[in-house]
Each structure stands twice: as structure tokens, then as C-alpha cells.
Amino acid sequence: MHILLVEDDQFLGNILKTKLANEGFEVTLAIDGEEGLTQAQKLKPALIILDIILPKVDGFTVLTELKKSPATKAIPIMMLTNLGQDADIAKGKALGATDYLVKANLSAGDIAKKVKEILRS
Questions:
Q1: Which tens digits make up the pLDDT trace of 28-50?
Q2: What would the 3-class secondary structure string for 64-83 be?
Q3: pTM over 0.70
Q4: What number of helices (H) and strands (E) belong to the chain?
Q5: Which of 7, 19, 55, 93 has the most CB within a 10 Å radius?
């Protein structure tokens, strides 16, 4: 299964990409919101893991655009960010995020486990 990871932190992106690849997933890493939108349209991944604070186009805008497009609106999107305020979480859910995770609270293993849960449901 293909996962699109939209994350501008190269270090974290590579850790997650490696962890998910070790779990059997094919992972494409996009380093900004614009590239994330392009890759989502092109790849139609099984899941998108999306940061919010991104160069060029922020994650909330990416989420909104993906949910508007007939080609990508059914793809589950897991927000993975350091924005843990209730208002941010509520906004992500309202815009159509399948799940909302705060990076600081999780290990790469925790994230991989959550990815499997979402893809099973």
C-alpha cells in the first residue's frame, strides 16, 4: 500500500519513511504543501499523513483542497503536527481529517500502529 507523507522536517520525514517502509508500506515523501497536493493527485495513495506547518501551502489548505477534489476526497488523511490546541484539532476534524495526532506525544512506532489501524478500518 502506498502512503504519501507530507512533512517539511527532512529528519522526521526520513525516520517515518524508514519505519513505514519496514512495516511493508511504499512511502513517498513530499516536503511542502504544494508538492503534497501534486503527489496526492498523481499517486492516489491509500493514506496521506499531513503536517500543518508547511512551506508554500499549509496543511489545512492542503486538506481542504484534497477533500474538495473528486479524485482525492475519499483518501483518509491523518494530520501529524505539533499544533495540539483544541481549536486546531477541531478544525482538522471539521475539514475532514480521519485522525489528528500530535508529534510530540508519539514515537515512529506509535505512528506506524495508527497508520495500520486507519488502513484496516
A1: 999 999 999 999 999 999 999 99
A2: HHHHHCCCCCCCCEEEEECC
A3: yes
A4: 5, 5
A5: 7
Q: What is the CATH number of the domain that holds 71?
A: 3.40.50.2300
Q: What range defines the domain where residue 34 resides?
A: 2-84+98-120
pLDDT digits (tens, 9 = 90+) for 63-92: 999 999 999 999 999 999 999 999 999 999
DSSP one-letter code for 57: S
Please choose, from the candidates 58, 59, 73, the residue with its C-alpha nearest in 3D space to the C-alpha of residue 101.
Answer: 59
Structural domain count of the chain: 1
Distance between CA atoms of residues 111 and 3, nearest Å = 13
Residue 92 in domain: no
Q: Which of 83, 87, 80 is nearest to 106 (CA)?
A: 80
Residue with cell 497536493: 37
